[in-house]
């Protein structure tokens, strides 16, 4: 058992999972922006998309026409830039026709996820961000079980502010507790709409559900990202939102999450390791 675990992601320093109880709350958007932010901070980053039925990461990074190649050590990730500081792996790169649906039963999905965790040749990553499927299905349980065995550093739970989405995250929180997965914190996405003309923020949905849940669950509240049409557009055309719109509230919130909750965690660990 231990030797099997030792082979999983051996060149990766830190692993963070992005989870949501519900589909469509912006999990892939958050995974992508956190990866880009970490890259901008000078780290070597991997982004692993294990949302097998809805692999949207390749499109969000403008990589939809890319394919992975095989080398002696396994699959070589697709890199976003020639300096190879952000590598991406997704089932979307393996489909012969990009519009093909993935219609696999549970065991095949579980095997594919295991393969993604063992057969991708990541070269000395500082961070691996893993975008997971929504929910807590059988498939999801096996994903988390696999990751738990490879010292996952934290789970970032994404919700929208409405009660129904927050309720789903509450279940995800319980699930993390039961599987021993450390929760980095809860992030509220699509929280209010910032008017591009006057910058006033209007709360279209309800407000603060994720923050209350974080308080109740005694886990950090990471922040809230407003609905930003520039972010939607950047995701659609594969533009780097963090560099193009660095001053926006959304980009600044991603930067603050990375600095205060992800890098900070590493600094804390380094401090205690040096004591
Ligand atoms: N804060 C935001 N501002 C504007 N658009 C957003 C924001 N967050 C997400 N979106 C848009 O909402 C849509 C859904 O987001 P995304 O695909 O990230 O959700 P998801 O939770 O990963 O969905 P799925 O469950 O299908 O994997 C995308 O078009 C994305 O660009």
TrEMBL record:
Positions annotated to bind [4Fe-4S] cluster: 195, 198
Superkingdom of origin: Eukaryota
A single MF term (Gene Ontology): ATP binding
PROSITE patterns associated with the record: MRP
Cofactor: [4Fe-4S] cluster
InterPro entries: Mrp-like_CS, Mrp/NBP35_ATP-bd, NUBP2/Cfd1_eukaryotes, P-loop_NTPase, YlxH/NBP35
Alphabetical keyword list: 4Fe-4S, ATP-binding, Cytoplasm, Iron, Iron-sulfur, Metal-binding, Nucleotide-binding
Annotated binding of ATP, by residue: 21-28
A GO biological process held by the record: iron-sulfur cluster assembly
Note on cofactor: Binds 4 [4Fe-4S] clusters per heterotetramer. Contains two stable clusters in the N-termini of NUBP1 and two labile, bridging clusters between subunits of the NUBP1-NUBP2 heterotetramer.
Record has Nucleotide-binding as a keyword: yes
Localization (cell): Cytoplasm, Cytoskeleton, Cilium axoneme; Cytoplasm, Cytoskeleton, Microtubule organizing center, Centrosome, Centriole
GO cellular component terms attached to this protein's record: axoneme; centriole; cytosol; nucleus
Keyword match Mitochondrion: no
Family: Belongs to the Mrp/NBP35 ATP-binding proteins family. NUBP2/CFD1 subfamily.
Family matches, as PANTHER family: CYTOSOLIC FE-S CLUSTER ASSEMBLY FACTOR NUBP2, NUCLEOTIDE-BINDING PROTEIN NBP35 YEAST -RELATED
Purpose of the protein: Component of the cytosolic iron-sulfur (Fe/S) protein assembly (CIA) machinery. Required for maturation of extramitochondrial Fe-S proteins. The NUBP1-NUBP2 heterotetramer forms a Fe-S scaffold complex, mediating the de novo assembly of an Fe-S cluster and its transfer to target apoproteins. Negatively regulates cilium formation and structure.
Quaternary context: Heterotetramer of 2 NUBP1 and 2 NUBP2 chains. Interacts with KIFC1. Interacts with NUBP1.
Protein name: Cytosolic Fe-S cluster assembly factor NUBP2 homolog
Source organism of the structure: Daphnia magna
């Amino acid at each position: 058992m231990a030797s099997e675990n030792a082979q999983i992601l051996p060149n990766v320093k830190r692993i963070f999972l992005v989870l949501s109880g519900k589909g469509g709350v912006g999990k892939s958007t958050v995974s992508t922006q956190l990866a880009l932010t970490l890259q901008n901070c000078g780290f070597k980053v991997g982004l692993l998309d294990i949302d097998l039925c809805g692999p949207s990461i390749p499109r969000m990074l403008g990589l939809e026409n890319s394919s992975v190649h095989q080398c002696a050590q396994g699959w070589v990730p697709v890199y976003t830039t020639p300096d190879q500081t952000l590598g991406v792996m997704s089932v979307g790169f393996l489909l012969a026709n990009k519009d093909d649906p993935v219609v696999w039963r549970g065991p095949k999905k579980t095997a594919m996820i295991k393969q993604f965790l063992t057969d991708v040749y990541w070269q000395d990553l500082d961070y691996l961000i893993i975008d997971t499927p929504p929910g807590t299905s059988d498939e999801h349980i096996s994903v988390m079980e696999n990751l738990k065995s490879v010292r996952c550093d934290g789970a970032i739970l994404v919700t929208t502010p409405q009660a129904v989405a927050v309720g789903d995250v509450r279940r995800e929180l319980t699930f993390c507790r039961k599987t021993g997965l450390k929760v980095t914190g809860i992030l509220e996405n699509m929280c209010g709409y910032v008017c591009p003309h006057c910058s006033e923020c209007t709360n279209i949905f309800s407000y603060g559900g994720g923050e209350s849940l974080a308080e109740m669950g005694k886990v950090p509240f990471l922040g809230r990202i407003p609905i930003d049409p520039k972010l939607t557009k950047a995701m659609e055309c594969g533009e780097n939102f963090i560099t193009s719109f660095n001053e926006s509230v959304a980009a600044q919130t991603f930067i603050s999450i990375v600095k205060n909750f992800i890098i900070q965690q590493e600094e804390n660990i380094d401090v205690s390791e040096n004591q």
